[in-house]
TrEMBL record:
The protein's name in its UniProt record: GntR family transcriptional regulator
PANTHER family recorded: AMINOTRANSFERASE, KYNURENINE_ALPHA-AMINOADIPATE AMINOTRANSFERASE, MITOCHONDRIAL
Gene Ontology BP, a term: alpha-amino acid metabolic process
Alphabetical keyword list: Aminotransferase, Pyridoxal phosphate, Transferase
The organism of origin for this protein: Phytohabitans rumicis
Amino acid sequence: MTAEQLISFARGAPSLDIVDVEGLKAAAVRAFDADPGGITAYGTSVGYPPLRKWIAKKHGVSVDQVLVTNGSLQADAFLFDYLVGAGDAVVVERPTYDRTLLNLRSKGGEIHAVTIQPDGVDTDELRKLLESGVRPKLAHIIPNYQNPAGVTLSLAKRRALLDLATEYGFTIFEDDPYADIRFRGEALPSMLSLDDKGVVVHASSFTKTVCPGVRVGYLVGPAPLIADIAKRATNLYISPGMVAQAIVHQFCASGDIDRSIQTVCTALGERAKVLATSLREHIPGVRFTEPDGGYFLWIELPDDVRADDVFAAAAERGVAVVKGSDFLLEGGEHALRLAYSAVTVDQVDEGVRRLAAAVEAVRA
């Protein structure tokens, strides 16, 4: 590997070698053979009906509780547009996905960030915030292998969040695109599946399990809310992309999705393990919680090392990272997010060596 070759820990996307291109090509042929009229027409704002039905079955809900969108970011945007207005209080995790912050800020939301712990968001801190009089419209939670922190919300905290949402009258937005990318441990029930009060709206996508290029995401929530958002979707675009959704449906219905998930889990589990080992070996004083799944690992550098400086020095050495401050309203000056999804195992150790060299350079 040449020094000039960029090693990127910046993008949360799968490398091409773990995308089932052949399976997707075959699914595309089946989609056009099975329903040429349905997938070449405008379709309906709630998404491609067979895929909508498949998603409903996966989550054990009725079909009218599902809206299939052009990627999960659009699902997020629909829900934020529906629930959040200027000055409305919203709760996010600290740190959280950078585009969540951008979207909520653009809506004029009053953002309250609640600390993340190794077992997920600090529900005691959230309760104190609520007891102080803050009344959020929603709490945005990424429960599994959180982006960017990589941690998983414990079962006890899932139940505590549901209780708080019921008591204080806010919606839990369960943003859950990583749930199936599990390397170890038992799968925990979604808050959607535990919800008997209608306080959860769940979002996910096929970006992490199939590929980003299909741009297929979805919302699951109370039927009246989904119906209202569907009306807005009709006005926005008539319907989402039927061709992509039909291909995803064929990919899922055939069982190819299960093989794809296993491929991604195996590859990313190995990459995450090598990354954690390399970080411990090459960067003394680095702190992190090793993830049980997902795409990301969040590191805290020693207090005398600023992430801004490391970011620039790493780029000079051919390695790309994302600064922790991108995921926070304030703070993160000593943190980095490392995505291990797009790097092959043989790139990981070399990437960490370059990162370690960058850390030493800014300390000098």
